[in-house]
Amino acid sequence: MYCEKLTITVCTLKNKSYIQKT
What we know:
Layout: H1 8-21
């Protein structure tokens, strides 16, 4: 997952969801 101009919190949540999905 990448972090562009998103909030750190949002990015972290997305990363966690992505990791859990795998």
